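Reading a protein record of the kind used here takes only a little practice. The integers have meaning only within a learned vocabulary of local backbone shapes. With that in mind, consider the following protein and its fold in token form:
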Amino acid sequence: MSIGLLRSLDVPLPVIAEVLSGSAGALDGVREEQEAELARRRRTLAALERVLAGGLPTPPVRVVGGG
């Protein structure tokens, strides 16, 4: 694997060093982090789609007291 390819996959340089030194499983943590980021972005996208479909949520306003 080339350094350029790994960098294009957002692999940090320290992990690339591990890969180049032959460390088995060096990319496992990167994959897990990218999966977590993808899940977070999917949740964000779903929330945005709800806003686009139904507008911003408007909590009820209640006036109390009054003088």
In short: The chain has a mean pLDDT of 93. DSSP finds three helices and no strands in the chain. Helices lie at 3-8, 13-20, 28-54. Residues 26-54 form one domain.
